[in-house]
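<goal> How does this chain fold?
<body> The protein record starts here
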Amino acid sequence: MLKWLLGIEGAEGVSLEGIAFQRAWPRLLLLALIVLAVGYAVWLYRRQGTVRPRRRAVMTLLRAAMYVLLVVMVFEPVFGFRATQTLRNTLLVLTDTSQSMGIEDPRKSDAQLVEAARGLGAAEFADPAGQRMLASLARTLREAAAEAEGAGEDAPQVLSRALEDAAKTREHFGATGGDEVLEMLAKVEPALADLRPRLQALAPERPEGGDAAGDSRPAVGGLLRRLAGQVDGATTGLAAAKVQLSPQLREQVEQTPRMSIAKGLIHRDRDNVFGELAKQYDVRYFAFDESLTPATGKGKQTQVELGGLAPSGTGTHLGSAIQAAVDRHSGQPIAGVVVLTDGASNGGEDPLEVAARMGKWGVPVYPVVLGLPEPDDLAVRGMMAPAVVFQQDRVSVRFQLVAHGFPGRDAKVALTLDGEVQAERRIPIGEGAEFLEMEFEVPMDRAGDARLAVAVETMEGEVAEENNRVARDVRILDEKIKVLYVEGKPRWEYRYLRWVLLRDHRLDVKFWMMEGDPQLSRASPLYVSGLPEATDEAFRYDLIILGDIDPNRLRIAGEQMQRVAELVREHTGALLVLAGSDHDLAGYANTPLADLLPVKPSEAERWVEPGPAVHPILTAAGRQSKVVVLEDDPDRNRELWQMVQPLYRLPAVEAKRSAHVLAELSDAPEREASYPLIAWQQSGTGKSMFVATDQLWRLRFKHGDEYHARFWGQAIQFLALYRLLGANQRVRIEVQPEGSEHPTGQRIEVVTNVLDERYRPSDAKSYTVYADRLSDPPEETPLVLRPVPGIDGLYRGSFTPVIAGRYEIRAGGEDRESANTVALTVKPAERETLEPRARRDLLEQMAARSGGRCLSISEVPALAGHVRGRTRTVTLHKERSLWDLWAVLALFLALGAVEWYLRRRSDMI
């Protein structure tokens, strides 16, 4: 009654502790007012002589009670009371509602069919009570192991509890049958009894590692964990007990969606594990995909809401969902997090990091795996192809084919360009991942942007067709790179490089031999007699290569050298200096070309003479570069560069602050500063590169032109394509990953090279570009880019589009006319259908890191044993103001109503 009046029905053992007044007025004043109120009520009714005395006394008492109640309420009385309350732990249940949960797994084996039938509630679980007992025993053993490995103070008590659990479990299986479980228990119980004296020896006051007992802690803990593993194995074996399914039921569950199984586990009529858990825990349900949505209502209302869930989410943010659910109940005791999912996480926080965090917080995660780990499927992944190609290029396209469930069959793979087949072949289907390569020749009638795709035909029975194709954008160029190669005399590097350049159909090359026959230009159209005189003629070249020449000879040209600098700085041309052993770089000092080079002459010496075994090694930037990587295999790439030795003498140079060093000498640890063997930098709107050695022809040893030509082809394209693609602006915007199409939710990195009006790298502390979504009206999002340390004029930032549509990345203000614009198409993410397999491996790691267990569908009854959250009884000391109690108002109204009725009967109204 008291709990009902105070409005605290959830509490237990309620008792009043006293009464106090919030108004700090004198108590004598309260007493005086009460006396006055009672006296006034008596005086008021003494004048009513026509009313019978008994009725007058009752009405006087009612009126006096009303006055006294009002006087007491003015002093704001507060009741103090004590109550005990039992707090239950909260159990969070998360259901995955992403699109992958709609996959209908092609179940073939009896075990897979039985799992699905149990999930749907069409077949009973194998001995739910036995699974629960075994799981509880395993958990107790792990708790004993943790105690033994720690201080060990509570280990004997936990071990006693384990022995009790083992006895109850043996009694259960002795009655229900289960020879394998009984045989396991017959080994576990004696081992636990033998451990009792060893656990008692692990006294906390003994220093760890100081005696035999301390040294035995890891051994005791390890033994207990092995025993827990044996119990877990028995649980798995028990759960996997076979059930005979009717032909109709087998057909029904052969291709049941994962979502239906999740709903079936929550709503099943028999052996409803979550219903049983709700008797011990406050179970809270959530749905999640890219965000977390709590289920409203309680009991049946929650079940009805969960029954309406649909697998519609375009992403699975597994880690973020667990973190968000736990954050919602922070400060409350949480017994664990149960997650019904296929584990195909593709966004948000790293699930493994979140699981490790839950382990530190004492919140175990219990994933229930829905779906097959290897469903029947073919998928094409990881296509590697150049972003820019030339007409008549022989292009190699590499990709990965992942196959499961179709051994011994073959499939047709087609390579298409804008939908037209360029190459196709039939390949035998293996099991697992296989790297393949196909080639095609770029047609002469194609130019501009095109869509390159690799697709494998769809096989009957595949769980997903969307991942059978992968595509990317390519740019097809219909013009050649114009190169002018200036050399002193025909050294070895020149002789081999000359033929590499002439055989490359992408190049239009002219040569000037400064120390050769002056009549060559008349005898062959391949040669010229000097740098171009006319401005238009100079600016027609995309790349100028300066070999081992005397820079003083170029100074005679005067204006021509200035035009080379203008070509690079203002017209997106490129300069490559290929040094030799005859002329150092000191001659370039104080010339228009000095600022263009990524290196500067050393003031201490003119030449560097490496040892005979010194060779090029790639820097961290070089290993990421498309210029100096000759093979994808890093070890093989290292072996190839080791062939470039000896290097003889090299010009003494130092790298500038703005340089990107791709290769250095292998004796770098012995030098005060590393030697920039191959380096490049952004020079105005163009690029410049320095190659310090003319011994690269040694790459031909045993390989012919393969790697020597590959390096020079990659270097020339890297330098000159910048111009052919129209990059002649002061502000150059690029995005990573490359390509014009991106999925929603993908982080896009924006890299911008900024030059000022004098075509020098900007020194601003930030640079702002704009990401415009071309909607109606357009939406403009400013992106503040930050400087890249060590590289003047280069800025970097990122944005993540979450709405599909067309976007443009552009500069703002006055720079808009001097900058390129990058167009992007953002499409709805297809991440859910690209990875159809259930990620049990990930879910098992999450469970291990958090201290939980990863369960199959048949092992769900074991949840009740694995989850352990003890209730707590707390004593609460609370206060309740009379102003807040509805009973006080009800009493006042009742007193007034009865008095009014009596006055009416007495004809006083």
